[in-house]
Amino acid sequence: MNSCAGTVLMIRPAAFRYNEETAVNNYFQQPSRISTEELQTLARQEFDGMVQQLQRAGVEVLVIEDSPQPVKPDAVFPNNWLSTTADGRVHLYPLFAPNRRAERRSGIVTLLQRLFNVERVNDWSFLEENGLFLEGTGSIVFDHSGKTAYAALSPRTSREALMLLAGAHGYAPVSFDAQDAQGRPIYHTNVLLSIGDGFALGCSAALVNEEEQMQVQRRLAESGHEWIDLDFAELEAFGANLLQLQNRKGERVIALSQTAFDVFRPATKNKLEQYGTLLPIAVPTIERVNGGSVRCMLCEIFLTPKAAPAGASPLSQ
Known about the structure:
3-stranded mixed beta sheet, Amidinotransferase, Amdntrnsf_FN0238, transferase activity, transferase
């Protein structure tokens, strides 16, 4: 499976606001004194700017408008409930916060089935009934070349759910405990680890168990990844919340947070630049208020597009 997607799905927010239900274990979130209306305006501006930057870089972007009702404050983060694989599967994931579960809209799945070759939809949301959660590529960071699924265990990432999902992919599950600089559990794996073609970027100091840390780094080295180590300051600036993509020319592009780019040490930038053109994107309101950054806003589409009329893109149908 190609580790770099050339197409991403993004959800344009209709009701962005601070989400109290996710703030209980997402310590990146900060309440805002800005009005809900202004927050929504700022979030949309940041979203639209990100879409434009990706498109200018040659990445295909499928933009879907969020439905205004029911209110979904975190709709801008589709990677937590949706992922796709090149063999034609769509996966729907169990979410921790009850007010996020309405994000799993059947109409979005239907659209994917219309535009792409979808062989099967695996709906794992039933696990919510048993208090088991696994929030998509927020909870799991896939090493496609090494067929391994990495996950930091947390209230949003259950070991049992990881075992089921990894088995369905035919991947080996590797779980570990991770904490921030204050000793608090890190809510999502993709804020401390990113895996691309030839590199793995992460904060080794966040892996509190030395044996688990060594296992993660050893497995990644065995599958051909150079380890790029982040410090806690880089982690807290969403340094690991990035995604390597492929543009229409087949060139590698790395979408990342402007916040992270501004904090990265020169050595971090220099190493990362070897694996693609860096594309810093400013989404400060989305980061500050709801605690997710650029990678969280991107759902990779590995599905094969259906045939389109000559000269037309399936995404324009």
